[in-house]
Amino acid sequence: MKMQGLGVAWFREDDFPRWRSIDPNFQPDHQHWLQRMEEVFTRYQAASLPVIRVIIEPNQFLEWSRANDAGVGTEARAAFVACKARPLDHREGMH
User: Fold this and answer.
1) Reported pTM
2) Is there a domain that residue 46 lies in?
3) What percent of the chain lies above the pLDDT cut of 70?
4) Helix axes 58-68, 74-91, angle to 10 degrees
5) What are the tens digits of pLDDT across the range 18-40?
């Protein structure tokens, strides 16, 4: 199956305290994170890589993580985003 786009985890500012409680290694500052991710997003788009922002809901992620024994760190979030991005490729197109 050909990958249609790259899913990028996107976190709402209001959810940041919850993410910090889920994963103590989570980026502590939303503004810093947002600035970094906007730069990454822009770089991917400049390289003509189709990118999808995938907003991660903490409860949905935890449910998936438990069901898949995936943990809660960066790799688990990346795997979750990949799962969520697949159907978005076909429904919404790239951003």
Assistant:
1) 0.81
2) yes
3) 85
4) 110
5) 999 999 999 889 999 999 999 99
Lookup result for tokens 């985890």: 9
Is residue 47 domain-resident? yes
The single residue listed with the structure tokens 């449910």 is 63
Range of the domain at 16: 6-91
Tokens standing for residue 41: 């997003």
The total number of structural domains in the chain stands at 1
**Does a structural domain hold residue 68?**
yes
Tokens 């990028």 sit on residue: 8
Residues whose CB is less than 8 angstroms from the CB of residue 53 and which lie 6 or more positions away in sequence, other chains included: 8, 10, 41, 95
Q: Is residue 1 part of a domain?
A: no
Q: What is the largest CA-CA distance in the chain?
A: 37
